[in-house]
Amino acid sequence: MTDRKPIATGSDWSFEILTEFEEEIARLADEYRLDTYPNQIEIITTEQMMDAYASVGMPVGYHHWSFGKQFLAVEQAYRRGQMGLAYELVINSDPCIAYLMEENTLMMQVLVMAHACYGHNSFFKGNYLFRTWTDAGSIVDYLLFARRYIAECEERYGVTAVEQLLDACHALQNHGVDRYKRPSPISAEEEERRQKEREAYLQAQVNTLWRTIPERASAGEGVGERDDEEDPLGLHAGGRYPPEPQENLLYFIEKNAPLLAPWQREVVRIVRKLAQYFYPQRQTQVMNEGWATFWHYTLMNRMFDDGVVDEGLMLEFLQSHTAVVQQPPFDSPAFNGINPYALGFAMFSDIRRICESPTEEDREWFPDTAGSDWRETLHFAMRNFKDESFIQQFLSPKVIRDLKLFKVVDDDQDEMLEVTAIHDERGYRRIREALASQYALSVREPNIQVYSADIRGDRSLTLRHVQDNRRPLARSVYPVMRHLHQLWGFPVKLESIEQGEVVRRYQWPLPEDEDSESPGAS
Amino acid sequence: MTYFIDRRANAKNKSAVNRQRFLDRYRGHIKRSVEEAVNRRSITDMGRGEKVSIPTRDISEPVFQHGPGGRRTIIAPGNKEFVEGDRLRRPGGGGGGDGAGEGGASNQGEGMDEFAFTLTREEFLDFVFDGLELPHLERKPLVDLDEVKPVRAGLTRDGVPARINIVRSMREAHARRIAMRGPIKRALREAREALEAEERKDPVLRNPARIDELKAEIERLEKRLEAVPFIDTYDLRYNNVINQPQPSSKAVMFCVMDVSGSMTQAHKDIAKRFFLLLYLFLERNYERVELVFVRHHTAAKEVDEEEFFYSRETGGTIVSSALTLVDEIIEARYPPSQWNLYVAQASDGDNWDDDSLTCRDLLVNSLMPRLQYFTYVEITPHAHQALWEEYERVEAEYADRFAMRQIVEAGDIYPVFRELFRRRAAQS
Question: To the nearest whole percent, how much of chain B has pLDDT over 90?
Fold first, then answer.
């Protein structure tokens, strides 16, 4: 197959050359059965790339100071040369928007196209989390709607009011997703059409909940049957509200906060919807990057084999690729946690190896995978897993050995750290399990739920934090509580639960008599 | 399906609003940094951006997070010598609660203590001069119109072809055509109707002469109709542009400095910084700022910037010589009707005793009525002398346009400057 001529040599690119490469990649991707959204490849300048970075990958964002902060940080890092911007920026939308920087060399452009436009793109389209939680077709519209709505609010209610509201919502945005309930897809037209209606309806609902004159007829149903000495009228028999703990704090606030104005509820909703859009990305970093890296590597090698890419470009590519998948050991100054590119790439490559040339060990560990069609298996893995389950399912002893993974337990009741597993026969499963749970959101982020809202009493809101292995909350809990208090409008409390017992209480506003709890955080 | 889109020509600075929001939010922090920077800066590079640091904790966006403590499991790569069951000392020593984990697996977002970023030159100067105002900033109304700006002023009937307003000309033509063709058309219609009526008549009753007459009439009218021009010179309208006299927004700043033996280089540096601040400030308020450097010992001389700051002179001090020279320069080159005049004087306070009185006379009678503002800084740690006292009397007379302060060391410059140009609230 080496009879073909390289499409281009050297490091300069032009639109014609890019188009040719793109067609070539598209042809190969099709051969590998990569199913993608249409691509919209945008060539942009450095400044525009920094803008894009700063808005956290949203092609249009509403205005908020935190994005300005992000921008300044990116700009500073870029100026100092601490950060290359070149690699990629791709947006989960339909068509899938990918940014190419004009400063990139030809190799970089080709690499980014393979990585983003075919790797990430197919992942967005195929992975079940993205399919369930995001709606690629309407996200850009929705972002436009959000931006316009928030700008309108700023005009009407003042920039400061909106900014404070957004601050508070941002503090809770990691708790703005129903993890176990499938959401309905979002669409901008729908949003706008329904928004007015919703405003009125929502307020009516909230009013019902907080009505001060009790409505006897409906409240009376369950009460009559009970006979309680302390509470003959059954005033307290209504039970806790909400009856079940709620994990989606923002949703709960949007629907139940007593004092929020309708527009404020809408803003809460916008932040919540955007949190939902980013929710899959937080859970599939290893897979997503691994998948994209695996495919750019495979596609580039294939193009080299076909003779479409010359040796110079290939060498440049390999250097860049190696840098990306490098995993510094834990004691290196460059160590900054496990590199998702490295782990993901190693795992996907290893799945291919297991399929194509399984060893005895692989047959024992992966009886179904060993020897199967690698394309099928890879696509299956990409479609049906998230980081946690992907590692649980596919992390092979070989990858553990290659990366020399080991497990350390850091217990604050123990003076020393303990190495509890290394890359040996006894350790594989334990390491795999521990690594998988390291990527589980439920372990990474504190488990906090709405426990009760005292709708008949002082209207205080109580949250419960179920501790995981006695791990307490960081001090940031106080500022977050303050934000929560702003949204709720009445005192908020938080209880940390360990084995069914409350081990720590936080509240905002701080109680005046016991300042010992106060962190002095402003 | 793939599209390539070249967005390079699109606007950048999409983040400008967000950036501004950030700066506004942390105004206080940034101002503190800027103040420090102004005092620290070397003399020549005021007009540069500035790196600003804000403690990370002040700008953090809090979320619920796990804190240190409890039992946590870490998987790390790159095992070399550990075997199962090894027990290790916590890294980082101290052994306390800050067990961030093996190998410094840092808690995200806690890595840096300071959030550092760079202000652009404009942003930096905005902060430097925030809340300051130039006293008596006047747009000089001009009698002799030597500064004019062309402005649009409606339409005229004549002008050069380049200024033809096509839309208005066509509209005029259209209106004229309607007006001129209307009566002809009406007559034509009547003639045709009459002709038709005539022709419908029984052949016996027809009047051939009448028919001929009508036909001739119709032909004549059609010709007239055609003769109405589509566009006429009469229709043409031209955009009218007139030259409007512009209020002057020019300023000239006189830097007056004592270079007698008693002024050391350190004094000059302080003076230079002060002049520089004033220059930058004026530059922001006026479209054009000219600088005039006047240095003096016993005699005054107009010099260029280099000589002003760096040449050494010795001798006694006669301040009035400089003021006289300034007065002459104003007379010769900067008529107060066209220029906003600012004088900044720096000195260590030395003067010939009986000269101070002359200075006051000069100021009160000749200079002050023409000046926008006069600032005097005395760079000395010592007690004031006759000049200061005389100036105090000038200040009493021209309280709103004469200001004087004492500077002891470089750190005083910015505060003094701010004080001199503080925005005066609720004062006309």
Answer: 4
3-state secondary structure of B321: helix
End-to-end CA distance of chain B: 67
Residue with tokens 């982020």: A445
Cα–Cα dist A488/A385, whole Å: 36
Strands B71-76 and B250-258: unpaired
Mutation target to probe the A interface, by most A beta carbons within 10 A, among B51, B79, B83 is B79
Which of A405-419, B80-94, B275-289 has the largest mean confidence?
Answer: A405-419
The answer to whether the Cβ–Cβ distance between A470 and B107 falls below 8 Å is no
The pTM assigned to this predicted structure is 0.73
Q: What are the tokens at A356?
A: 């194509």
Q: Return the SS3 of B94.
A: coil
Q: Give the whole-angstrom CA distance, residue B93 versus residue B168.
A: 85
Nearest CB to A40 within list B5, B25, B97: B5
Residue B157 φ/ψ, nearest 5 degrees: -85, -20
Structural contact between residues A480 and B62, judged by C-beta atoms closer than 8 angstroms: yes
Contact (CB, 8 A) for A56 and B15: no
- For an interface test with A, the pick among B1, B73, B120 (most A C-beta atoms closer than 10 Å) comes out as B73
When mean pLDDT is compared across A22-26, A455-459, B375-379, the lowest value belongs to: A455-459
Strand pairing report for A417-421 and B250-258: unpaired
What DSSP string describes A298-315?
A: HHHHHHHHHTSS-HHHHH
Q: Find out whether A75 and B117 touch, Cβ atoms under 8 Å.
A: yes
Domains of chain A (ranges, CATH numbers): 15-127+284-317 (no CATH), 352-442 (no CATH), 445-517 (3.40.1350)
User: φ and ψ at A400, to 5 degrees?
Assistant: -60, -40
Give, in degrees to the nearest 5, the angle at Cα A505 between A502 and A510.
165
| B321 Cβ neighbours under 8 A, 6+ residues apart | B296, B298, B299, B300
Which chain B residues are closer than 8 Å to A172 by Cβ?
Answer: 63
Q: Which residues in chain A have their CB less than 8 angstroms from residue B10's CB?
A: 44, 48
CB A370 within 8 A of CB A363: yes
Residue B225 to residue B106: CA distance in whole angstroms: 91
Q: Please give the CATH number for the structural domain made up of B250-420.
A: 3.40.50.410
CB pairs under 8 A between A and B: 282
Round to whole Å and give the CA distance between A268 and A449: 17
pLDDT digits 0-9 by tens, A490-511:
999 999 998 888 888 998 888 7
Return d(Cα A234, Cα B50) in angstroms, integer. Answer: 67
Written in H, E and C, the secondary structure of A177-197 is CCCCCCCCCCCHHHHHHHHHH
- pLDDT at position A191, please? 66
Query: Is B43 in contact with B273 (CB distance < 8 Å)?
Result: yes
ipTM of the complex: 0.81
Helix A311-324 and helix A285-306, axial crossing angle in degrees, nearest 10: 160
User: pLDDT by residue (tens digit) across B56-78?
Assistant: 777 888 889 888 888 888 899 98
- Residue A354 is predicted with a pLDDT of 94
Q: Which of B255, B258, B271 minimizes the C-alpha distance to B412?
A: B271
Interface with chain B: mutation pick from A416, A433, A476, highest number of B CBs within 10 Å = A476
The 10s digit of each residue's pLDDT in A71-117 is 888 887 777 765 554 467 888 888 898 888 888 889 988 998 999 99
Chain B environment of A79 (Cβ under 8 Å)? 118
Residue that the structure tokens 């190998």 belong to = B103
Q: Helices marked H in B201-264 — which ranges?
A: 208-227
Closest CA relative to residue B75, chosen from A435, A312, A449: A435
Cα four-point dihedral sign A73, A76, A79, A82: negative
**What is the Cα–Cα distance from B354 to B260, expressed in whole angstroms?**
17
